[in-house]
Amino acid sequence: MTGLILTLNAGSSSIKFSVYDGDARLFRGQVERIGPNGRLTVKDDQDFEHPVTAPDLSDHGSAVQAILTNILPLLDGRKISAVGHRVVHGGMRFDAPAVLADETIAYLETLTPFAPLHQPHNLAGIYAARAAFGDVPQIACFDTAFHRHHPFVNDTFAIPREYYDQGVRRYGFHGLSYDYITSEIAKQSPTLAQGRVVIAHLGNGASMCAVRGGRSIASTMGFSALDGLPMGTRCGQIDAGVVLYLMQQENMTADQISDMLYKNSGLLGMSGVSNDMRTLERSDQIGAKQAIDYFIFRIQRELGAMAAVLNGIDALIFCGGIGENSTLIRERVCSGMEWMGIELDHTRNAENTPRISAELSRVTVMTIPTNEEVVIARAVRNLA
Ligand code: ADP
């Protein structure tokens, strides 16, 4: 495939996009606040912001149309030959990207109850792109696909079997990020790529993944993207009894609990200060300190669990906004983990170099900036 590839990541009120030529990104941008006050930005790879005209950004359809209208004149006559979509859920069926035939889209619709806050918006992006692009091939890349071959014990909950059979499973998410990181490890060290690796994707959403020989065998996220580590506003692991208590004693509705666990919990809910790690690191409020303490505690706990599941660990990789940038969080995660063979080089850590472990550390510790969009572009190139 020699044409250009458009990647789309459609959320509830935004659509992020990039235009790729091979692995090189030519343009990127987003429509924010889809609706009457929507705003479109388009930047090139030098971060130059191009002027745009976007009279209508009232819904996903008009937003995709506006993206198209504004980027086509920038492409020197080259055509968009395929479109790749980030889709949160591929269900039990997809362990790899898929061409979006009618029947595939119908299946993805059936997964909406599994990811009600994301799947409908991803689908809205797909419908909008189909309308705007006609018969240009469209490909879906799933956040769940990378984890689809977890062993049964890491795929299930201990509830009656019928729920497992109907799809109540530990899907795991952030798969595009983990896919990218494993491909980078393979480039940098084929030996490590065959080994036992724990990847910590620490952003506003956060999860960890245990990878052996390039394949995911466990994820801290489960049925939904709520499980595991505390996140910017999501709670992470929680005892199901808490949800029962909120329903039975506090008379909270499902929507209220959902709002609380997705939007008002995590670092924000615990600190009462912010969901943003930079703000928390600068804050002298006790809540901010406790939120960071809990974040570190959960990461270390999961790190121990993942090393156990992998029967050891050869590498620990940090990625995501916090993992890639926060010297403090990396330092604290690794502190006390010498028993596991993790020894940080503090100077390298402070300098954000790719390898941040000490020369003699048995476990290699690295930061690798993640790139979910290039994974989509590559998948589209392979399939379209
Ligand atoms: P998303 O999951 O929305 O893609 P990102 O991966 O961009 O999020 O991560 C956002 C998080 O990264 C925020 O909590 C932000 O504070 C944090 N972050 C970014 N740069 C730094 C930094 N230099 N130090 C600490 N945290 C940082």
Concise structural overview:
The chain is α/β, with parallel strands linked by helices. 38% of the residues lie in helices and 19% in strands. Adenosine-5'-diphosphate (ADP) binds next to helix 10 and helix 12.
Q: How is this structure best described in words?
A:
The protein has 2 domains: 139 residues, Nucleotidyltransferase, domain 5; 184 residues, Nucleotidyltransferase, domain 5, CATH 3.30.420.40. Helices cover 38% and strands 19% of the residues. The strands form 2 sheets. An 8-stranded mixed sheet has the order 5-4-3-2-1-6-8-7, with helices on both faces. A 5-stranded mixed sheet has the order 11-10-9-12-13, sandwiched between helices. A hairpin with a 4-residue loop joins strand 4 and strand 5. Helix 1 crosses helix 3, helix 5 packs across helix 15 and helix 11 packs across helix 13. It is globular and about 60 Å long. The mean pLDDT is 96. The protein binds adenosine-5'-diphosphate.
